[in-house]
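User: Hey, my collaborator sent me this sequence without any context and asked if I could get a structure. I don't really work with proteins. Can you help?
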Amino acid sequence: MASSPVSDRPDNPVCSAQDMNPPVRLMLDERVGHLLRRAYQRHMTIFQQHMNEFNLTPPQFITLAHLFEHGNCSQSDLGRLTAIDHTTIRGIINRLKARGLLNTESDPEDARKVTTVLTPKGKEITKQALSRIDDVSELTLNGINEVERVALFHLLRRLADIQ
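Assistant: No problem. I've predicted the 3D structure and written it out in structure-token form, which is a compact way to encode the shape of the chain:
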């Protein structure tokens, strides 16, 4: 006879909410990590709804936006600007390069240094995506007044250790 993954034997009890004595109350709605994750999920849903046609992930978008704003960057500088680790930024660059949105060039003075450059196609897509990002932010902050927004940004910068 095959054994069941669920057993009623005393040496292999099955837990259920009614078996807990006393019940444990996790109060997830009072946990900063849970609340940040929920807020991020909400923002991501709005981001995807408004940016879907560009087929960009948020890290890809922020990479293109930083290149658009700052011009050509080394991979390490781009990683610092975007707060994305070296390995991940390299993968993002490779994927955006495969889509023809950017190119990489070796620095003529230092062959170890690779510069990342937006292509004309990359500039155009970035401009179009940037034209929608304010709507994404506004919808994310919908229902939050100006004073609360100032406080929220102040606290988020402190949590992110950005002074």
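In plain terms: Helices lie at 32-51, 58-70, 75-82, 86-98, 120-140, 146-159. You can pass these tokens on to your collaborator as they are.
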